[in-house]
Amino acid sequence: MSVKTKPSATFSRIKHAYRQAWKGREFAKAEKQAVLMTRRHPNYAYSWRSLGAARVELKRPAEALEALAEATRLEPNDDQGFYWLGSARFALKDWDQASRELQQCLALNPRHAAAHALLARVYNAQGLRERAMESIDTARSLDPDSPAILTQRINIFSAARRMEDVLADCQRLLELDNNNPSAYSLVATKYCEMTDFARGAHYFEEALKRRPDYLEAFSNLIFNAHYDPSLSRQHIAALIQRWRASFSPAQRPRRPEGGGRDESRQLTIGLLSAGLRMHPVGQMITSALENLSVDDFRLAVYSTSDLKDVLTARMRAITDKWHNIAGRPDATVEALIEQDQVDILIDLSGHTDGNRLRLIAREPGAADR
Fold first, then answer.
1. pTM for this structure?
2. Which domains does the chain have, with CATH numbers?
3. 20 to 30 A from 38, CA-CA: which of 102, 169, 210, 347?
């Protein structure tokens, strides 16, 4: 049963302020206006949907669920309410429930392009490649000029190794979104996956022209340069020097005075990586770590990935401290490293996905300085 009353002038003013904040992508401000709407107008589904949507955008999906459930209770025929519920479930990696919410959205509005696109991402996460490609193609047919949908089509078809479609989509994406550095970085990555390293490097440089502080694009440029047989070590060294000039501290962090460590305590080794799982990093180091002397060493881990498996469990069993730092600010992670009294911090990511090289450049830890 839908609860509908005539909106008041006060509600209209708050709603306008919410929409202005949303349009400017000021989601914290949008959340404040949405909270105000739920307090003053708790019988309006829009109030609760607005609050839930803002919290999803603020990367707090668990907090969004209650508000979005209330929105769909008040207005069970609102496709947008179910879309945002699906978005929250997707962010929480609850693939089955996300699929159900998005299918309910599409039952109410079969032409909801964004819901088809998000459902495609759910199927892709579940390994259902054919269903993912079908859903993203439906989304694109409904909104053929959406850069966001085309970006997802590139990722999904790439996962299915349909590279002939991917490269055509890459060129179309740049036509639609030619000032977006993220678009150039994505296109560069796909050309590198096809071993066209020269063209990939060109597009990484285009991304950096548009956003000089684009750390991910610069790391990918350096990483892929190591696979390009046409490049000399001098060329790669010059790229690394450029990275240092752009991202390293202007002055090297001050080293602590020697003699401050309590020699009676174990040496604390910190490990920072996204690969502490069934991944080349995890496969290479797990057995070695299991054979470290527990009398002499203790381990503190800073994982930039929330993926976990049997190797993760083995490593956690021998680790004194384990922190998932994905999405956490560098300053917060640096404080954790100091709190854990890390003596030697080992970066196991280099320029690969999930790296925290700006943090590493500040040389946190003690004995490693």
1. 0.82
2. 9-172 (1.25.40.10), 178-248 (1.25.40.10), 267-361 (3.40.50.11380)
3. 102
